[in-house]
Amino acid sequence: MATVAITGAARGIGLELAAQHVAAGDRVLALARKASPALEALAASSGGLLTVHMVDVASDESVRSGVASTGTGPVDILYNVAGVAGHIPSELESADWDAWNVVFAIMVQGPLRVLQAFLPRLGADAKVINITSQIGASTWPRGGYYSYGAAKAALNRLMRSVATDLKPRGVIVGIVHPGWVQTDMGGPAAHITPQESASGIRQVAADWTLETTGDFLNWNGKPHAW
Fold first, then answer.
1. CA-to-CA distance for 148 and 15, rounded, in angstroms?
2. Burial level of 206, CB count in 10 A (0-12/13-18/19+)?
3. Is residue 111 part of a domain?
4. What per-residue confidence (pLDDT) applies to 78?
5. pTM beyond cutoff 0.90
6. Measured between alpha carbons, how far is residue 9 from residues 80, 162, 199 in Å?
7. How far apart are CA 77 and CA 97, in angstroms?
């Protein structure tokens, strides 16, 4: 039985990762700013395998208290999933800087806050899997998505540095594009279901080694261009 911590566990990919890990018999620490009915139902049916912990990844105090509520035992996998779309249309001629600050607080600072809080509990061979987006790659061919794309690019660079610094401790860091997924954020026209994405991410996480720490992969395990 692995112990798995998941941010953004109330919906979408985070919720599906939680469900699949529970089905595999793993202990799941579900971290969410607010519990959804689906997450509460999963907890109730999990036989005690899943517990829900209130964590707003944009808040230092919330992360500290929420992670403290999960106990002190070792964590085998930390999934940084929590995200926000930001202001989707192009902001070429104007920008909502308060909204930018929220996007960066959640999707750049947030994963590092959570990692720092769990770090004493991450031993050799523990894995930190960060859900990013192809929009954060320099190879993304379209415009728009300014704050979202910039935040994901920053997350990619940040976690590449973290991977280098944690390698001597044996902690493995991964960066994963989950695919275009049929979630509230991805929309119904997206290419794959949350079940397909989460299943692929779980396999990619299981296969990750220290030799490939810091790599940027697709949900199907294929390398993603930076």
1. 21
2. exposed
3. yes
4. 99
5. yes
6. 10, 23, 15
7. 34
- Residue 224 counted as domain residue: no
CATH of the domain at 140: 3.40.50.720
218 phi/psi in degrees, rounded to 5: -80, 165
Is 223 within a domain?
no
Q: Enter the tokens of residue 169.
A: 């401790």
- Residue 131's DSSP bridge partners are 176
The token duo for 109 is 């600072």
- Which tokens hold the place of 225? 């261009």
H or E element at residue 77: strand 77-80
User: Residue with structure tokens 């607010």?
Assistant: 34
Q: Measured between alpha carbons, how far is 218 from 221 in angstroms, rounded to an integer?
A: 5
What does the block give as tokens for 88? 């989707």
Confidence band, pLDDT 50/70/90 cuts, at residue 194 = confident
CB atoms within 10 A of CB 184: 9
Q: Amino acid identity, residue 50?
A: L
Residue 102's domain comprises 3-218
Residue 89 predicted with pLDDT over 70: no
**Number of separate domains in the chain:** 1
Do 17 and 6 form a contact (C-beta atoms < 8 A)?
yes
On whether residue 105 sits in a domain, the answer given is: yes
SS (H, E, C) 153-183: HHHHHHHHHHHHHHHHHCCEEEEEECCCECC
- 10 Å Cβ neighbour count for 164? 12
